[in-house]
Every structure is written in C-alpha cells, then in structure tokens.
Amino acid sequence: MRLRPALIAVEGIDGSGKSGVVRHLAAHLRSLGADVLATREPGGTPEGESLRALVLAGKDETWEPASELLLMTAARVQHVRRVIEPALARGQIVVTDRFVGSTLAYQGKGRGLSTGFILDLHRQAVGDLWPDLTLILDLDVATGLGRSRHRLSTDAIDEGRFEGLDLGFHQSIRSAFRDQALEAPARHALIDASGTPEEVQAAALAAVLGRLSA
Questions:
Q1: What is the CATH number of the domain that holds 191?
Q2: Cα gap 206→214, rounded to integer Å
Q3: Is 83 part of a structural domain of the chain?
Q4: Which of 94, 122, 142, 195 is most deeply packed, by most CB within 10 A?
Q5: Half-sphere exposure (Cβ direction) of 133: Cα atoms closer than 13 Å
C-alpha cells in the first residue's frame, strides 16, 4: 500500500487515549513501509517542551486566557517550523498528539476566547497549516478525567492544571471537539473512544488508512 505524506492530528478530551492511538498509528504505518514521525503538542521541540512545563503545571489561575493562548501558539510555531514542515518536505507522515483543534476547544470554547481571533493568530503565526485528517477521540468526560488523573498521580507527572478544572469545563471541551467534527466532516473522523484500547486504535487506523490511501 502506497501512503502519501500527510499531517494527522489526534485530538480529544484528557484521558481519551490519544497517546496510545498515536503510538499504534506510528507503529502500524511503519510496518507498512511508511516513514513516520510521532510528536506532540505542546512540545515537539526543546522550546515547546519548556513551554509545556509552564502551561500544564501549577494552578489554573497562573495564566490569563490570552497569555495561555499565546504560549500555546508560540510552542506551535516552533513545532511547525522546526519539526512538522521539514518532516512533510522529506515525505514523512506526521502524527501529532494535539494540534490547533485543541486550541479552538480549550482556549476558545473553554476559556471564552474568540474563534476568529484564534484562527487569525493561527494564520498569521503558523502559516495556516491544517491537518489532512483530524481524529477526534470522543469519550464520556468523567471517564476520561478519571483515567487522566490516575495516570498523572501514578507517574508523578506535574501536568494537571487542566485536569483540576471542574466537570463543566471539560464537558464544554468535549462539545467543542464534537462540533469541529460536525462542521468539517471531510477533514475529521469522530472515533468512539469508549471501547477497549484495541478497538479504539483499530477504528483510528481504519480512518487514517482510508484517507492516506485515497
């Protein structure tokens, strides 16, 4: 199977299984002979990882919503310019754990910032790069939060700033992701993430193969 270079984003609420899906996609696509780069946001570069530590740690009141948006965008500029665009130019398939869809959900719907402002900032700063396909892992919020909080606690990871927010905030995030899929179905695949990891990963892979082999 010949697979073309593409940018694939995996999105969803905290605890929806994004990291596992990214790993599974990368491994399976490599087994088919594709050159794959797996990455994440915020992160993907040393600068992005430093910004990740700033934004995801600590208490929620640490950052104003606009500051949070600008930090996330700064990390994405580094990620796109230094990692994603060069990889695509080399003919690789890039699979990223989160991209601009998360910004529209968390800083847009969640924080109340204007969608127009976020989109304009993306166009101006990032160059209007969008995924060829965005997988949205859809899961009950309480289930996802329980998984994510357990992982952070078990692994002693200080990235729980968003997990500390109330259920209503996370329900708005889930709604925002679902709206993205409904508004642009040609560029999104809504994946039921309530099944076993194997079932979710299989559904995600089928959606990606359908797009890349088209």
A1: 3.40.50.300
A2: 12
A3: yes
A4: 94
A5: 24
Q: Is 114 a domain residue?
A: yes
Q: What is the pLDDT of residue 158?
A: 62
**Which residues define the annotated binding site?**
12-19
Specify the number of domains making up the chain.
1
Neighbours of 168 (CB within 10 A): 10
Give the per-residue pLDDT at 213: 80
Q: Is residue 58 part of a domain?
A: yes
pLDDT over 90 (residue 38): yes
Assess whether pLDDT exceeds 80 at residue 146: yes
Residue 1: inside a domain, yes or no?
no
Annotated binding site for ATP: 12-19
Q: How many CB atoms lie within 10 A of CB 177?
A: 26
Q: Which of 204, 160, 212 is nearest to 5 (CA)?
A: 212
- Residues of the domain holding 145: 6-212
Instruction: Enumerate the β-bridge partners of residue 36.
Output: 93
